[in-house]
Amino acid sequence: MTTPFYVSPQQAMADRAEYARKGIARGRSVVVLQYADGIVFVAENPSRALHKVSEIYDRIAFAAVGKYNEFENLRIGGVRYADLRGYTYDREDVTARGLANVYAQTLGTIFSANTEKPYEVELIVAEVGPAPEDDQIYRLPHDGSIVDEHGSVAVGGSSDQIGSYMDQRHREGMSLGEALKLGADALGRDSNGGERTVTAEQLEVALLDRTRPQQRKFKRMTQRQVARLLEEQRGSAESGSEGAEPSSGDEGESEGDGAES
Amino acid sequence: MEAKASGTGRLPAAFLTPGSSSFVDFLAAHDPGQLPGNRELPRVERAVEAPHGTTIVSAAYPGGVLLAGDRRATMGNVIAQRDIEKVFPADEHSAVGIAGTAGLAVEMVKLFQLELEHFEKVEGSQLSLEGKANRLSTMIRGNLGMAMQGLAVIPLFAGFDLDREKGRIFSYDVTGGRTEESGFAAVGSGSVFARGSLKKLYREDLTEEQAATVVLQALYDAADDDSATGGPDLTRRIYPIVVAITEDGFRRLAEDEVSGLAQAVYDGRLQLPDGPQAPLS
Fold first, then answer.
1. Chain B contact for A109, CB < 8 A?
2. How far apart are CA B14 and CA B24, in angstroms?
3. pTM of this prediction?
4. Residue A122 lies in a domain
5. Which of B8, B17, B54, B229 is catalytic?
6. What angle do CA B116, B117, B119 make, to 5 degrees?
7. B114 min Cα distance to partner chain A (Å)
8. Of residues A56, A86, A106, nearest to B11 (C-beta)
9. For labelling alongside B160, which of A124, A243, A244, B53 has CA 20 to 30 A away?
10. What domain range is A71 assigned to?
11. Which chain A residues are closer than 8 Å to B8 by Cβ?
């Protein structure tokens, strides 16, 4: 008969954390930034069909990195949670805080249960408020903790480099174009200090736009819109002028679109 | 739902089970008591008295479709509500109007809206217009038990079909049977009179504004002959609700727009109380 190895709880948890972190670090990153009219999600995602950023409810969106089947499951669970809660009570009663709590409990239980393998995912749940100071952004690492974030946040592969790059440059009241460009530039940093230019074709961009007249504030940006905004920003940066708000006109154009375009 | 979550507060297994994109199916599996059709009703001798909504009319025109409803709810011989709203957006490109038991109808619309939104969020794309119409059919069938006891809900569903690029109208019977209507349709207690009126006034080449006048005339005729249908209430400024669905999406006509048209219909009736006269041949 073999005697089971003794593994100290510290070692067991450290191993599980290491396992989850490695899985997450393999994927490309997602950044989330506040801008004047809402929150913009920028993900490096070569796929047009498999989304990393999605709508959960009227004012709430979800972004994730890591293993697709695991975060897709959590996303659908979140949509079901939000829709059921809104149906039982009222649409007002669905909040990002509530959702983040449920996600944290779910991830935490799975992380510390010995029978399940830890999820290799890191999530962001964000809610746009009536004013910028009411915006909420929660980051949910693989182990079930919740981090309340402000301004800008990155998750995924080189999130440390990307995050500190954004922290130095993000400021309150940025226009959509400025925030988008900062996000795209930040995604081009890698952990070895290297730099590359991320083009509009590689990006998945979505907004929680508080100025949208519809109840549902989530909107995907088309590749063309992203390319045009980035071009304007990169153009004005080269010519040295501070293009203050070249983006405000573009936002209204697809107002009539459904949440999915 | 909190009570249903396990002690840890994590999402219950049903939430994380891959499968259906339908909210109704999820509810049926996870919390069937919340589904309107699943309630047991005690046997009663007579029909239950509850507010009933009345007439809904719809007319298609090139580039879109209109759906309109009067504002009256009745309970027996009593006017239960003068300003009830019976026409709702279902999603960005469709709308639903309801006749029948008001309380159940409003709940059904809420569930139907959620069903479409839920599918859209989970799948990342909208249901086809036929798909939406079929979902509504299933939901009405779920209400059959209550309908047998006099609590029927009969909707009229109109939407813009983005593939065929035209407005389409679907009517239903109490068993969930679905019929696509061509051009125009009416449901509810005043529908007989509204349909007669629509028949004489409707043409295929109406503009949106003309189509709005046609549905207001039809509602006026319904109110004229059916006591359960309310006409435009000029003294209280309560006008029918008119919504348009076009390629650009759902739009509820503003109150000034409707009040202007309703006033014109009323002014015409001061000259010709029975409304505009169609040529004899």
1. yes
2. 13
3. 0.89
4. yes
5. B54
6. 65
7. 7
8. A106
9. B53
10. 21-248
11. 105, 109
Give the ipTM. Answer: 0.87
Q: Is B13 on the interface with A (CB under 8 A)?
A: no
Determine whether the interchain pair B120/A256 forms a contact, defined as Cβ–Cβ distance below 8 Å: no
Measure in Å the smallest separation between the Cα of A53 and chain B Cα atoms.
Answer: 11
Angle in degrees, 0-180, between the axes of helices A68-88 and A96-112, rounded to the nearest 10: 140
Q: What is the DSSP letter of B226?
A: -
- Answer yes or no: is A118 within a domain: yes
| Contact yes or no for B10 and A102 at CB 8 A | yes
Q: Distance (Å) from the C-alpha of residue B6 to the closest C-alpha of chain A?
A: 10
Does residue A186 fall inside a structural domain?
A: yes
Residue ranges for chain B with pLDDT beneath 70: 1-8, 47
Are A258 and B249 inside 8 Å of each other by CB?
Answer: yes
Do the Cβ atoms of A105 and A112 come closer than 8 Å?
no
pLDDT at A1: 61
Contact call for A87 and B111, based on CB within 8 A: yes
pLDDT in tens, B140-155: 998 888 888 888 999 9
Q: Is A74 on the interface with B (CB under 8 A)?
A: yes
Q: How far apart are CA B238 and CA B241, in angstroms?
A: 9
Nearest to B26 among A74, A80, A106 (CB): A80
Return all residues near B102 (Cβ < 8 A) that are at least 6 apart. Answer: B50, B51, B52, B53, B73, B80, B81, B84, B86
Asked if B31 is an interface residue toward chain A (Cβ–Cβ < 8 A), one would say yes
261 residues of chain A, pLDDT tens digit each? 677 778 888 988 899 999 998 888 888 899 999 999 999 999 998 888 889 999 999 999 999 999 999 999 999 999 999 999 999 999 999 999 999 999 999 999 999 887 888 999 999 999 999 999 999 999 999 999 999 999 999 998 888 899 999 999 999 999 999 999 999 999 998 877 778 888 899 999 999 999 998 899 999 999 999 999 999 988 877 665 444 444 444 444 444 344 443
Asked, for residue A35, whether it belongs to a domain, the answer is yes
Query: Is B8 in the active site?
Result: no
CATH architecture of B24-33+48-271: 4-Layer Sandwich (3.60)
**What's the total number of domains in chain A?**
1
State the CATH number of the domain containing residue A127. Answer: 3.60.20.10
Answer yes or no: do A87 and B31 touch at CB < 8 A. no
What beta strand segments (E) does B15-115 contain?
52-53, 56-61, 64-69, 73-75, 78-81, 87-91, 94-101
What is the per-residue DSSP string for A174-211?
--HHHHHHHHHHHHTB-TTS-B-PPPGGGEEEEEEETT
What's the pLDDT score for residue A238? 65
Record: contact A109-B15, CB cut-off 8 A: no
| Closest of A60, A36, A64, A18 to residue A159, by C-alpha | A64
How far apart (Å, rounded) are the C-alpha atoms in residues A84 and B23?
8
pLDDT of residue A252: 40
Q: Which one of B31, B122, B249 has the shortest CB-CB distance to A76?
A: B122
Beta carbons of B10 and A105 less than 8 Å apart? yes
* Cβ-based neighbours of A251, under 8 Å, separated by 6 or more: A37, A176, A209, A211
